[in-house]
Design goal:
Layout lengths: L14 E5 L2 E4 L4 E4 L2 H4 L8 H11 L12 H12 L5 E5 L2 H18 L7 E5 L8 H7 L2 H4 L9 E4 L4 H7 L4 E6 L2 E2 L5 E2 L2 H14 L2 E5 L23 E4 L10 E5 L20 H14 L4 H22 L4 E7 L2 E6 L3 H10 L2 E2 L1 E3 L3 E4 L7 H18 L5
Helix pairs in contact: 2-9, 3-9, 10-12, 11-12
The chain binds pyridoxal-5'-phosphate.
Length: about 400
């Protein structure tokens, strides 16, 4: 009996080492990692630049507290702001904390600008925002709320993609609208560009904040640094985590200076958030992601993978029904239970992640090579043949 709380239904695998897009199991098998620790290891495993940054910082200073200036954290904030709509950053350790910071920022914004009565947030159906008490309420999934007592109040849910419903849900107590530009856990559901632009218009018309949760869709995953860039629209606040640390825990709430007006000294905090180790790794991730041509290559690899997956959908209609997503954030909609496909892929040496809507998420590292994509597609083909009873 494990001493762990059994909060995860874990597969039997354990890994001892990773290298690029590959993971090496304790039993001696190697796996092509198209899960990336659920969209975290965007630069693959043991990326030399990240390893060097972590090692170099580890020998100097791990932690000192946000009671003091942390130059690497300031630099990370400046670089994230320069590369996005944002003008201010707050660092934390996870996606849920980044969303929490966005929610707090929205309430504080209205309090600081004379509208403390605005505190509610319009959220979308099929969303996922994390596992804290506020973020399970924002996500609204019954299976996440079950047994945890009265849900945190203040979230008004409307269908994802329905701007009219969002507009109708805005009332005198509304502080913000919060959506994922691409729903990740919900099964790689891409928001229409027009929908995101309409939400921007609604927020402006009512003087409320538009918040994007880019914890999964951000940090290059969609082929742009942030997925909302595809829609040509900017939010007032945004939650980022996962790929920001490439596997080192770090999250951020990014915001315009206007939206962050209430986030004054003492208003929010985190012991670990943006500590020297985390900030050193975050900067190293940006060194790679912001380099000339990196995101263009992600887009090209994404198109390649998508085209090959679409061909598999044609070939195996009994197993796969569609491909959706953007960049290297792709979902295979299944005709069989998605967990059966994930198991068959794992059996054949490919790791992928199930998602809502009976989807299997394909989240390769953003540094994935053409050959690795071809290998993964061969494995999916083989797994589909096994599932349809054809000779593999
Ligand atoms: N928001 C989104 C869109 C996510 O996909 C996730 C995690 O999957 C979270 C928030 C929560 O992030 P974390 O698990 O780091 O708290």
């Amino acid at each position: 009996m494990s001493a762990l709380m059994p909060t995860y239904a874990r597969s039997d695998l354990a890994f001892e080492r990773g290298d690029g897009a590959w993971l090496y199991g304790t039993e001696g098998r190697r796996f092509l990692d198209f899960g990336s620790g659920i969209a975290v290891t965007g630069l693959g495993h043991a990326h030399p630049h990240l390893v060097a940054a972590l090692r170099g910082q580890a020998e100097k200073l791990w932690h000192c507290s946000n009671l003091y200036h942390i130059p690497a954290q300031e630099r990370l904030a400046e670089r994230l702001c320069a590369a996005s709509f944002a003008e201010r950053a707050f660092f934390c350790n996870s996606g849920a904390e980044a969303v929490e910071a966005c929610l707090k920022l929205a309430r504080k914004y209205h309090d600081a600008t004379g509208h403390p009565e605005r505190w509610r947030v319009v959220v979308a159906a099929n969303a996922f925002h994390g596992r804290t008490l506020a973020t399970i309420a924002a996500g609204g999934q019954p299976k996440h709320l079950q047994g945890f007592g009265p849900a945190v109040d203040g979230f008004d849910r409307v269908p994802f993609g329905d701007a009219e419903a969002a507009a109708a849900a805005v009332g005198p107590e509304t502080a913000a609208i919060l959506v994922e530009p691409i729903q990740g856990e919900g099964g790689i559901v891409v928001a229409d560009d027009a929908y995101l632009r309409a939400l921007r218009g609604i927020a402006d018309a009512h003087g409320i904040l538009l918040l994007f949760d880019e914890v999964q869709s951000g940090m290059g995953r969609s082929g742009r640094l942030f997925a909302h860039e595809w829609a040509g629209v900017t939010p007032d606040g945004m939650a980022v985590a996962k790929g920001l640390g490439g596997g080192f825990p770090i999250g951020a709430c990014l915001a315009t200076a206007a939206a962050a007006v209430g986030m004054t000294a003492g208003s929010h905090g985190s012991t670990f958030g943006g500590n020297p180790l985390a900030s050193a790794v975050g900067n190293a991730v940006l060194d790679v992601m912001l380099a000339e041509g990196f995101l263009a290559t992600v887009r090209a690899r994404g198109e390649d993978l998508r085209a090959r997956l679409e061909a598999l959908v044609e070939r195996h209609p009994g197993v796969l029904t569609a491909v959706r997503g953007r960049g290297l954030l792709l979902g295979l909609v299944c005709a069989v239970p998605n967990t059966d496909l994930v198991a068959a892929l794992q059996e054949n040496g490919l790791l992928a992640v199930p998602g809502g809507g009976n989807v299997v998420r394909m989240l390769p590292p953003l540094i994935v090579g053409e050959e690795e994509i071809a290998t993964a597609v061969d494995i999916i083909d083989r797994a589909c043949r096994t599932l349809t009873g054809q000779t593999p």
